[in-house]
Amino acid sequence: MTDLKLLEHLETYLTEHRKQRFENVLSQRTKHFTVATEDVYQLHNTSAVIRSCDVFGIQEVNIVEEQNSKRIDREIAMGSQKWVDLNRYKTVHDCINDLKEKGYQIVATTPHTNDTLLHEFDVTKKSCFFFGRETEGLSKEVLDAADCYLKIPMVGFTESLNISVSAAIILQHVTTKLKQTDIDWQLTEIEKQEKRFDWIKKTIKSYDDIVNRYYNNK
Amino acid sequence: MTDLKLLEHLETYLTEHRKQRFENVLSQRTKHFTVATEDVYQLHNTSAVIRSCDVFGIQEVNIVEEQNSKRIDREIAMGSQKWVDLNRYKTVHDCINDLKEKGYQIVATTPHTNDTLLHEFDVTKKSCFFFGRETEGLSKEVLDAADCYLKIPMVGFTESLNISVSAAIILQHVTTKLKQTDIDWQLTEIEKQEKRFDWIKKTIKSYDDIVNRYYNNK
């Protein structure tokens, strides 16, 4: 599937600095954890979640857009979505099925359910963290399907944090803790190759020309 | 200074639920850590930092407003500033002096200085976490005065988090860790009494009438 000779050739178009950057980022990417957002209305929240995924090395984000599909597009076109993979779903049902097939447990992040506290969360399990709507929270469907309810302990008068802040706290915590375990959390070699191609394609403007010339000269 | 009989009388005007809430929140409040913001322009960032302080039990927030004094007022009038104490300073110099006199080490939170990583930070020291301007970061004065540079490890292409997200991650982490130590981090009994008065004053509309009647009937 992947043409390693072509990849090598393409990489000669990158600066040494950029190439090294790709490798550094790739070495810290994981699919052990993933994130799902369910009909998040406030557009800056969606892009903030995507940015946090990039910052903390989460490669895949799942976006359920039962009600909001049109509005989200514009926003995510602006952010760091270039470097993470967005899986988009029309229904929660499809999203959850897909995640379960891939072996993820469903983790509902809810501010009011008194279940697992963040610092007690078992990071060894493949997990998808679900974040819900700003006011209504997660849908009944997600809550019913959840294997685990995760809570950030809060001790003040204010009893909630916004989605982008919750996501950042959770992702920072679980990825830091994951890297202290001996779990095999990194991307596979094949997944890394795919991302190298993908990122080069998004970086080099004349990608198509270079690939065409490469095959014509072969 | 504090009239405990008056406090007892005032508390009869609170519902049992509210009284219990005050005690729960008070029992988790700390001055072992505090936060300082330096000329933060984006108003929603200041109030998000204040909200995070409330959520994670930080009782005091220090606000330096060398350049921005007028604009911040409006915003902080809306948030959870009712429950935390705001110390306002016209100069960084005054703020740092005051904090040092109170025994705090100055912790500069900077995304680009490669020093202490968050999960390695020593929570046993009394610390003030400084957050700077959105684009310029912290001033040279804060960086020069800092005892410690704290960094949230980031492993993606995006190399920064916004102030409100950074503050929330740091405060969540250090307060959780602090509570796992045997450090004496809680408010003193006198500090708690002061907050009980203060919070009752902010809760009961007819506070002044009640106090006047109390003293007249004595």
From TrEMBL, chains A, B:
<comment type="function">
    <text>Catalyzes the 2'-O methylation of guanosine at position 18 in tRNA.</text>
</comment>
<keyword id="KW-0949">S-adenosyl-L-methionine</keyword>
<dbReference type="GO" id="GO:0008168">
    <property type="term" value="F:methyltransferase activity"/>
</dbReference>
<feature type="domain" description="tRNA/rRNA methyltransferase SpoU type">
    <location>
        <begin position="33"/>
        <end position="171"/>
    </location>
</feature>
<keyword id="KW-0819">tRNA processing</keyword>
<dbReference type="InterPro" id="IPR029026">
    <property type="entry name" value="tRNA_m1G_MTases_N"/>
</dbReference>
<dbReference type="InterPro" id="IPR033671">
    <property type="entry name" value="TrmH"/>
</dbReference>
<dbReference type="GO" id="GO:0032259">
    <property type="term" value="P:methylation"/>
</dbReference>
<dbReference type="InterPro" id="IPR001537">
    <property type="entry name" value="SpoU_MeTrfase"/>
</dbReference>
<feature type="binding site">
    <location>
        <position position="109"/>
    </location>
    <ligand>
        <name>S-adenosyl-L-methionine</name>
    </ligand>
</feature>
<keyword id="KW-0820">tRNA-binding</keyword>
<keyword id="KW-0694">RNA-binding</keyword>
<dbReference type="InterPro" id="IPR029028">
    <property type="entry name" value="Alpha/beta_knot_MTases"/>
</dbReference>
<dbReference type="Pfam" id="PF00588">
    <property type="entry name" value="SpoU_methylase"/>
</dbReference>
<feature type="binding site">
    <location>
        <position position="152"/>
    </location>
    <ligand>
        <name>S-adenosyl-L-methionine</name>
    </ligand>
</feature>
<keyword id="KW-0808">Transferase</keyword>
<protein>
    <recommendedName>
        <fullName>tRNA (guanosine(18)-2'-O)-methyltransferase</fullName>
        <ecNumber>2.1.1.34</ecNumber>
    </recommendedName>
</protein>
<feature type="binding site">
    <location>
        <position position="161"/>
    </location>
    <ligand>
        <name>S-adenosyl-L-methionine</name>
    </ligand>
</feature>
<comment type="similarity">
    <text>Belongs to the class IV-like SAM-binding methyltransferase superfamily. RNA methyltransferase TrmH family.</text>
</comment>
<keyword id="KW-0489">Methyltransferase</keyword>
